[in-house]
Amino acid sequence: MLVARAGATxxxxxxxxYVMGGCxxxxxxxxxxxxxxxxQTWMALPSHGAAELRKERWFIANVLEGKIYAIAEMKHYAYxxxxxxxxxxxxxHEESWWLNKWCVVDDVMYCYSHSGCCMWFDSxxxxxxxxxxxxxxxxxxMPTCGLASGVxxxxxxxxxxxxxxxxxxxxxxxxxxxxxxxxxxxxxxxxGGEVWGKLEWVETVLTVPESFTFSSGVVVSI
Length: 222
What we know:
InterPro entries: F-box/kelch-repeat_ARATH (IPR050354), Kelch-typ_b-propeller (IPR015915), Kelch_FKB95 (IPR057499). The protein is mostly beta strands.
């Protein structure tokens, strides 16, 4: 990289790695840079329209329809690599405050909010809407293994939503060993624009000490 960074955000798009943040909000010239895998070179990028984003306390980014989307505390932003410009997409939904996990499935953004609600982004209305279904509700409120506030990873697994979490029940009760749960959810878009989720599989996949730190996860097919 061209400058030292700490806690930066990175995404992969069209053979290039885009890196944002981690170098101070005042460094507008170096706030964003890109690594071209083919030429093995770094280049600083203009971040026009990113003044507000640089001042956000946090943001997480992903790729959708050839653009980089950043969800922050107050607003959502989109970056078009062809134009080199950021723009505000939508105000952050109250249920997506403190959002820290989201992914893209069939060109639709899905996320889990801090309260364990599964949501999807309607690009036409520019609103976050709740994924419906009794299975989704049960996963959030199950007494001993509900996923509220404990989501570790959300990923696209063959067109279905894969969710990993640790139950809040275990944290509240200071249980020394924590269970990591995993669930696979089939998504269906119904008439009227609603998205429904159906639980296909759920179980404990790993038991770890309470002091564990979850760094990242990758979905692979074997």
